[in-house]
Amino acid sequence: MTANGTATTAVPAPDPATGPGVQVVAALLRRDDHIVLVQEMRDGMEMWTVPGGGVERGELLTEALVREVKEETGLNLRAVGPLAYLVNTTTDRYPSTVVLTFDCTEWDGEIAVHDPDGKVTGAVLLPLTEAKAVLASSTATRPEVEPLVDYLDNLSAGRLWSYRDDLPVE
């Protein structure tokens, strides 16, 4: 019962298999013609991608982005840049995931990994052409690499990419 006397009903906790979705933030850390990539261990395989990770309960997107950049690269994000692109994926493991990637050019500090999860094993600032080659040969999933390389090639912000089981959905 609420304070004004109306009845309330209990809302069951969401089933992890059906929702709610997972929110992930990622930072495209650019400086001149260079970007920062992180090396991560996932399912026993090394892969390269941009820094980012899950938004924790009660955390704002911007807070999560600042935290993930600091943990995975040691860098201080001075300003959250504009939204570069969104990726919406669904797989058996993660039924609905939304990844928001921000184009960030205002950062400082020295690269040093402090990942409390122990997944990120390295971080490096690479020339754009070399970074794109590293990403093309990465074992990261298609939804992680394809939108990123497209954005780096075109710098056209705001595109929504959708994937079901790592296959594009038109």
Structure characterization notes:
This protein has 170 residues and is an alpha+beta fold. The protein has a single domain (22-162), classed as Nucleoside Triphosphate Pyrophosphohydrolase, CATH 3.90.79.10. It has helices at residues 61-73, 128-136, 142-154; strands at 22-31, 34-42, 45-49, 52-54, 76-77, 83-90, 97-104, 107-108, 120-127, 159-164, 167-168.
Write the layout of secondary structure elements.
Layout: E1 22-31, E2 34-42, E3 45-49, E4 52-54, H1 61-73, E5 76-77, E6 83-90, E7 97-104, E8 107-108, E9 120-127, H2 128-136, H3 142-154, E10 159-164, E11 167-168
Parallel strand pairs: 1-7, 6-10
Antiparallel strand pairs: 1-2, 1-4, 2-3, 2-9, 5-8, 6-7, 10-11
Q: Can you tell me the residue ranges where pLDDT is under 50 for at least 5 consecutive residues?
A: 6-18
**For the record, what CATH class applies?**
Alpha Beta
**Total number of beta strands:** 11
Distance between the termini: 46 Å
Query: What spatial form do the alpha-carbon principal axes imply?
Result: globular
CATH topology: Nucleoside Triphosphate Pyrophosphohydrolase
Range of strand content = 35-45%
Largest sheet: 9 strands, mixed
Q: Secondary-structure element order, as H and E?
A: EEEEHEEEEEHHEE
Number of helices: 3
Radius of gyration: 18 Å
Mean pLDDT: 87
What level of helicity do the residues show?
Answer: 10-25%
CATH architecture: Alpha-Beta Complex
What class do helices, strands and sheet pairing give?
alpha+beta
Question: How many distinct domains?
Answer: 1
CATH-defined superfamily: Nucleoside Triphosphate Pyrophosphohydrolase
